[in-house]
Structure formats: C-alpha cells, structure tokens
User: Which sequence fits this backbone?
C-alpha cells in the first residue's frame, strides 16, 4: 500500500506533468510536416497535368448576365459546378483580374473573363476535395496558350513553391466557353498543403508598401500588404512584416528575416522569364509574400505575361535583358532584389541558380519536350476553342518562336555569367555590340500586354476555310447571357457569339445585399471600411481616414454615399456573429487540429484525471476506514 507521503508526491508529479503538457501544447502547437506525403485529395483529382480538366458551370441565366454586365464589381453569384464528373452545389463564382478584366470588359466582342470559384461562399465548410477556391484564367495576351503553364513549371523545377495548375475545358450552361488554365487559389488550402498549418501568414501585395521599401514603423504605410492578407492577421502578426522590411532596408540580419535561398531561386527563374508583370516591374505586384516565425519568402503568381509580355518593347532587349539589374525601374526601388545582390555570397548563389536553370531545363531539352507534350495535350482544344482571343494559325506559329526565345535567352544568360556579355543595364548601354543577335524572331508572335486578335480585338477568330470553331461566328449560345439585345451600332458584334451581352436597360444591378457602396468590395475589405467610418468624429472623416478608404478601393462618390448612410446601417456588422449570414463578417482562419495535437490534449487530460482518481480513492478509503 502506498504511504500518504509518497502518494502526495505521485499526485504532485502527475498534476505537474498534466499542466506542463497542456501548457506546451498551447504555447507550441505542433505542426504537420510540410514534406508530408499525404497530399490533399484535390491534387490528384483536379490537377493532373497529363489530362484536361472538364468543368461545367450551371447557373441562372439572369445571374450570369449580371456578373458579365457588372464584371468590375467582382461580386459572387451562385452556381452549380461539375468538376470531372463531381457536382458541387450553391458555389460562388465571379469574374476576376486586373488589366485582363478591363480588357475584356471594354471589348464588346468578348465575354471571356477569368473567373474565381469559391466553394464555401454560400455553403459553410464546402470544399472541392479540400480546395477552398479555384482560379480559372482565360489565357488572355498569350497566343501560345502555354506561357503561364511553362512559367509555373520552371519555378517548380527550381524548388520554388507554386500553386497547382492544369488546363480545363469549360462550358457554361452546357455551352462551350473555351480552354482555360485552372490554378489553385493561394489561400488557406494552399498554405496548409505546402506548409502544414496556418501558423504562417500569406499576403498578395498590391499598392502601398508592395515595393517592400522602408516607410516607417506604422502599419498604415504598408496597407497594400496588410489589407491583402489571404486570411486574418493581427497587428502583432503584421509587425513581423514591418520588422523584415526595416532590416531589408538596412541590409542587416537578412537570413534572420528572409528565406534567402528560396528568394534567390525565385529571382533566377523570374529573371530568365523576363517577367515584369511582377515585383521586378513598375507595378510591383503579382507576387505573394509568405511569412512564418518572422521569416519571409516570395512566391510567384499570375504569369500569363511571362516571356517578355510586359514592359519590354523589343525582342533584342528581352533576349539580352541584364541578369544583375533584372528590373524595369531603378534597382534601389526593389530592395528585395537589390539588397540580396549586394552580398557577394548571395549574388554568387543567384548566378549558380541561373546556370542550373539554363543547363537543366533549357539546354537539356526539358523545355522543348514540355512544349511538345503540352501541345499534344491541348492542340485539339485550342483548335476548337469557341471564344479564343487568337486564331489557331497564330497558336501554331507562336510555338517555334517560343522555343527560339528560350534558346536565345539561355545563350545570353550564359554569356552574361561568363563575362562575355554585360550583366547590368549601364554596361549594356555602352556595349550593345556584344548582345546576342535576336533578329531571327519577333516576340509579338507570342502575344503580350494589349495584344489583339484578328480584326483588332481579342476574341475574334479568323475564318477557317473548313468552318468549325475557328469561324468568326461560333455556334449560337442560345441567349446565354441575357440575350438578344443590340450592341453598339457602329461595332455590331456577331449576334450568336458565345456569351453575348444582353441589353443594358440602364440597370447596373443592386449593390451587394442592397448595401450602398459595397459594390466591387470583398467582405473583409468592407469590414475595414465600416470600421474606419465608425471611427469618424461626428461623421467627419480626417485626411488620413480618407486616404485609408481610397487605398481600400473607394472613390469619392462611394465615400460620400457611406458618409450619408444611416448609423444603423453602418453598425449592421455588429448584429452578425461573423458566420454564414453575415455578408461582411470576418473570415475565419479555421486552423486545423492535428492528430498530434489531439494526443497532447488526451495525454494531459488523462494524467490530470488519473491524479484526481487516486485522490478520490485514497480519500474514500481513508474515511471508510
């Protein structure tokens, strides 16, 4: 029989172990490995790059007509979507994009928008085999149909984390809508798949702070990063980004705040691709910033203008673009590049990755084999693409140019690495004679920003002598998007063109949920707008608050409407719990509880219960005797 002296010691040990175990679990929640072999189901079911995904979107024709007519509002409407034979009901869909959306919106001859599909917009917890959102990219400005696909493939080959991607043939209400590139949205499911948990934070910088230049310690100076978080972040979380930017600006403790190796790999691929619709270009966007434990890295996104499709106006300049000043602005304006390349060790590693990419992906024949493989996969779908921006003939003529550009670009990079060709802008200005001769190709054959199809607009195909999908008048769509209404008399479009827009009727459609000023704003953005409005003194906005509202996407007219809104409308978000019925409620990060975490709780609880049981037994025996 255990003596009371030892019994007290045993109980103390058990209770201490329970408390320590529980405390450790709360302070240091264990993560699943980012290299786990257990890929989510959607990777295999959706993103098999050896096959073309089949997607049918079924929705009320009036709703479809509305999102086409009001594409710039990027507002969801309900649809049912069948992906490779499996149907998901009451799913959100909306047009998406920046310049690509504007190009289609302004073109009366095409409604081929890119789309974002959100599976849990109306049905809480619904996913597509574990996927939260799916981006359907319309392959605008790309005669090759391959630039984004190949660019992601090159990043993957260099060990850079990328979203999953695969081609998709899309139909809307059973009518052909064309060949798209389906891409995994970089949000919660993407982060969990690649990093094992939602402990880290993901941002898509756009606007203030997206150049990653130091602008002081106030988070408001980096609103273009913080407001673009993929899921909820706290002020404490965001301080890690501010600390990173400060140390980047000073060039100090870079490895403490940056995943230098992964960033250099990204830069090597982006430089080869002459991809300036990115951090390296004037718009300093189309990239993601991932931070975990205060360490940040850069991830690629939106690559349809890779292969010199943006901000480069000559083939020779694109082929010979300098590898040590790989920006279209001053290098000092892009500190994530400048500060790393200032360090000889990092610059040497960057050069090593450029050589590795050229040797292993281009010179080895991998690039050419990949182009041939993709062509075999999509050729028939391109030929029969009912809403294509370019003709099938243009597609076929683009591929030899694409292959030759890659060969010449690789040749130039090797020459720059060996010192035979200048590697900076300043040197090249004075030594153009050493450049690689690129007169054999014309990069306009690949398509690019502002590129147009036959007849001066995207979406019109040249007549095909054999008829079929290449005909300028594709099959009738049965009034899919509302109809038969007339378009601009001076620019009469084919009346049977897929997705023909219906009559305007001077009806811009309702604001989101009837809420004035909510058009074009995401729910989480609307929450931030409402918070600023509520903080205004006596309804008067300060200059700083006006600036914040404009950074969130409001214009003067919208701000005035918000100021005149009744107080009960401004405070309506307080009446919701943030769940399904709250159109402006905060998005939950929904952190995943792993089996390891459950085990921690179970063991700690068991130890505590065991200690209590022993106490109860001992007391019972003591008093009964």
Assistant:
């Amino acid at each position: 029989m255990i003596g009371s002296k030892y019994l007290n010691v045993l109980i103390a040990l058990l209770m201490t172990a329970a408390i320590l175990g529980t405390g450790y679990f709360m302070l240091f929640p264990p993560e699943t490995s980012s290299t786990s072999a257990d890929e989510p189901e959607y990777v295999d079911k959706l993103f098999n790059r050896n096959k073309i995904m089949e997607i049918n979107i079924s929705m009320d024709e009036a709703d479809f007509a509305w999102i086409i007519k009001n594409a710039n509002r990027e507002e969801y409407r309900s649809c049912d979507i069948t992906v490779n034979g499996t149907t998901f009901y009451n799913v959100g869909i909306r047009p998406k994009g920046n310049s690509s959306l504007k190009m289609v919106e302004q073109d009366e001859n095409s409604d081929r928008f890119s789309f974002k599909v959100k599976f849990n917009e109306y049905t809480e917890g619904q996913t597509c085999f574990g996927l939260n959102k799916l981006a359907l990219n319309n392959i605008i400005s790309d005669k090759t149909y391959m630039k984004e696909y190949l660019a992601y493939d090159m990043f993957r080959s260099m060990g850079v984390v990328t979203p999953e991607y695969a081609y998709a043939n899309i139909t809307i209400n059973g009518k052909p809508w064309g060949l798209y590139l389906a891409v995994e949205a970089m949000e919660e499911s993407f982060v969990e798949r690649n990093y094992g948990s939602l402990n880290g934070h993901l941002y898509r910088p756009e606007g203030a702070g997206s150049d990653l230049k130091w602008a002081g310690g106030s988070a408001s100076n980096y609103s273009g990063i913080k407001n673009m978080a993929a899921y909820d972040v706290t002020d404490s979380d965001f301080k890690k980004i501010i600390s990173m930017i400060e140390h980047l600006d000073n060039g100090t403790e870079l490895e403490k705040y940056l995943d230098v190796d992964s960033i250099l790999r990204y830069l090597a691929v982006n430089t080869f691709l002459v991809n300036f619709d990115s951090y390296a270009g004037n718009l300093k966007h189309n990239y993601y910033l991932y931070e975990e434990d205060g360490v940040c890295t850069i991830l690629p996104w939106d690559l349809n203008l890779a292969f010199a499709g943006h901000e480069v106006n000559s083939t020779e300049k694109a082929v010979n673009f300098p590898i040590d000043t790989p920006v279209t602005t001053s290098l000092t304006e892009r500190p994530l590049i400048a500060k790393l390349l200032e360090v000889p060790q990092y610059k040497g590693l960057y050069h090593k990755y450029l050589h590795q990419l050229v040797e292993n992906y281009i010179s080895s024949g991998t690039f050419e084999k990949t182009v041939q493989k993709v062509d075999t996969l999509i050729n028939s779908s391109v030929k029969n693409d009912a809403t294509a921006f370019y003709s099938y003939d243009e597609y076929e003529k683009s591929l030899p140019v694409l292959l030759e550009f890659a060969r010449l670009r690789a040749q130039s990079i090797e020459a720059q690495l060996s010192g035979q060709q200048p590697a900076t802008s300043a040197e090249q200005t004075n030594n153009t004679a050493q450049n690689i001769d690129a007169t054999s190709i014309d990069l306009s054959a690949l398509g690019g920003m502002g590129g147009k199809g036959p007849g001066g607009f995207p979406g019109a195909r040249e007549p095909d002598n054999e008829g079929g999908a290449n005909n300028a008048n594709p099959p009738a769509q049965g009034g899919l998007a509302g109809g038969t209404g007339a378009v601009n008399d001076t620019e009469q479009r084919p009346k049977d063109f897929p997705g023909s827009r219906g009559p305007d009727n001077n009806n811009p459609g309702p604001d989101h949920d009837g809420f004035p000023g909510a058009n074009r704003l995401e729910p989480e953005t609307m929450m931030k707008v409402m918070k600023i409005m509520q903080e205004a003194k006596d309804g008067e906005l300060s200059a700083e608050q006006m600036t914040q509202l404009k950074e969130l996407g409001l214009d003067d007219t919208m701000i005035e409407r918000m100021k005149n809104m009744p107080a009960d409308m401004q405070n309506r978000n307080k009446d919701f719990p943030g769940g399904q019925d709250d159109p402006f409620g905060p998005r939950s990060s929904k952190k995943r509880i792993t089996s390891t975490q459950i085990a921690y709780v179970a063991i700690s609880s068991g130890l505590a219960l065991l200690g209590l049981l022993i106490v109860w037994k001992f007391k019972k025996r003591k008093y009964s005797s």
Q: What stands out?
A: Residues 29-37, 451-520, 566-595 have pLDDT under 50 and may be disordered. The chain is about 40% helix and 10% strand.
